[in-house]
């Protein structure tokens, strides 16, 4: 073998070894950097997650500790009155009768209930005048029933007239009011039943004239029956 060629070949081997060396070094560095990059990435994700969690926790705490909005079913008093009247069987007569009473309109369900009682009393009193001068026996009996109904509704209003520090409504008072208002409704029905039994010629006229007072009394009872639900919507309790 030619000595020169041998040395030339040896030189090529050395050159190949020299060329391969940097690649091995880069590979080692890359392998070293991989775990480091992964660690940094994981740490960054954990830090971001922790930061988001703290922000969410602060936000939830702020929402939970915020004072409740001022009690109103709506910023519009007319909407509040509609919301209360919508629980009744006759929402239109409820709204129209109370909305014509006062200004500004109340948004407190207890105040609206009290107004509905006054509306019922006023209408029933007006109806009473239509039968008070009649000589017909059935109508005289009917008048007695109407006077009894007015007495019960009057007791209901009086029960809500309270002094300083006293509650307008209590659980015991609600129970009494339900009894009195239900009895007032029964009195009106008894008036009509009596006219029908005695075959009074005035029964249809009386039924027509009594329709509004019956609706108003029914509205009172419906508002009272759902007073807790209405107060809950306002974030209120009996007061």
TrEMBL record:
Family: Belongs to the PMEI family. In the C-terminal section; belongs to the pectinesterase family.
Residue intervals passing through the bilayer: 36-60
Enzyme Commission identifier(s): 3.1.1.11
A GO molecular function held by the record: pectinesterase activity
Signal peptide: none
Superkingdom in the source lineage: Eukaryota
Lineage: Eukaryota, Viridiplantae, Streptophyta, Embryophyta, Tracheophyta
SMART domains on file: PMEI
Keywords, sorted A to Z: Disulfide bond, Glycoprotein, Membrane, Signal, Transmembrane, Transmembrane helix
Species in which this protein is naturally found: Carpinus fangiana
Pfam family, one: PMEI
UniProt protein name: pectinesterase
Classification via NCBIfam families: PME_inhib
InterPro entries: Invertase/methylesterase_inhib, Pectinesterase_inhib_dom, PME_Inhibitor
Domain Pectinesterase inhibitor: 76-223
Classification via Gene3D superfamilies: Invertase/pectin methylesterase inhibitor family protein
């Amino acid at each position: 073998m030619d000595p020169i060629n041998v040395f030339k070949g040896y030189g090529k081997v050395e050159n190949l070894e020299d060329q391969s060396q940097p690649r091995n070094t880069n590979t080692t560095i890359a392998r070293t950097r991989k775990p480091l990059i992964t660690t940094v990435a994981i740490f960054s994700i954990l830090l971001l997650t922790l930061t988001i969690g703290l922000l969410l926790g602060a936000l939830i705490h702020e929402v939970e500790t915020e004072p409740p909005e001022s009690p109103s079913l709506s910023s519009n008093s007319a909407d509040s009155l509609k919301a209360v009247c919508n629980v009744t069987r006759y929402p239109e007569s409820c709204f129209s009768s109370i909305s014509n009473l006062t200004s500004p309109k109340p948004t407190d369900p207890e105040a609206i209930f009290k107004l509905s009682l006054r509306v019922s009393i006023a209408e029933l009193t007006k109806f009473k005048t239509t039968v008070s001068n009649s000589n017909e026996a059935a109508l005289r009996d009917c008048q007695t029933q109407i006077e009894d109904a007015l007495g019960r509704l009057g007791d209901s209003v009086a029960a809500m007239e309270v002094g300083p520090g006293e509650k307008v409504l209590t659980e015991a008072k609600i129970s009494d009011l339900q009894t009195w208002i239900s009895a007032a409704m029964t009195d009106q029905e008894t008036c009509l039943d009596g006219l029908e039994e005695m075959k009074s010629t005035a029964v249809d006229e009386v039924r027509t004239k009594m329709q509004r007072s019956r609706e108003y009394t029914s509205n009172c009872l419906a508002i009272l029956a759902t007073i807790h639900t209405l107060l809950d919507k306002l974030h209120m309790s009996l007061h």
